[in-house]
Amino acid sequence: LAAIRLAAFGAITVAAGRHILPRLLRSVESQPDTVLVVVIAFGFVLAGLGGGALQVPLALAAFLAGLAITSDRYAESIRKELGPFRDLFAVAFFVAIGTLVDPSTVATEWPLLIALLAAVVAKGVVTWGTAHVFRLPARRGQLAVGLAQIGEFSFIAAGLVLATGAIDEGQFTVVL
If DSSP states are collapsed to H, E and C, what string results for 84-141? Predict the structure, then answer.
């Protein structure tokens, strides 16, 4: 059922991005401020539709809505206009994540913290070694550091695992 809902939302998103958004943007293209409002509203409506009506995880729905927005001929100007908003939401995201961390819990879960840090460092070493063995024409250290990190999706996955009860709050905090 979840796959069907996700597929339906994907189809709606593609159709809206190809047919509805371009018409909306053509109707307001002479007013740059209105273009920005239309794009943001379009993204929120699509994300809300996916998250609310179709029960797609809101983060995924918002991501797909963003993809729909950038598939239009206005994509480059939209990216420039949304740059400050992206930065603002990135800061808000990390502030929100920071409020979830209890430093005293990290102190009690230090073995897990060491294990997770070792896993991330090991990913970097493997990446660097692979790039070295295959003589990739890249800055191997930069590649290793860039690919070794864990991303925001890990936070979402950890939250889902916490909700199932497979990990406790302390372990969740360490992942964060």
Answer: HHHHHHHHHHHHHHHHHCCHHHHHHCHHHHHHHHHHHHHHHHHHHHHHHHCCCCCCHH
Instruction: Compute the distance between CA of residue 69 and CA of residue 79 in angstroms, rounded to an integer.
Output: 9
Tokens of 120: 């991330």
Handedness of CA 108, 149, 81, 13 (dihedral sign): negative
Which tokens is 35 given?
């273009």
Q: What is the pTM of this model?
A: 0.60
Q: How many helices (H) and strands (E) in the chain?
A: 10, 0
Q: Is 37 helix (H, G, I), strand (E, B) or coil?
A: helix
Residue range 20-48, pLDDT digits in tens: 998 998 899 888 788 889 988 999 999 99
Angle between helices 32-48 and 58-69 (to 10 degrees): 140
Separation CA 39–CA 31 (nearest Å) = 12
Confidence of residue 152 (pLDDT cuts 50, 70, 90): confident
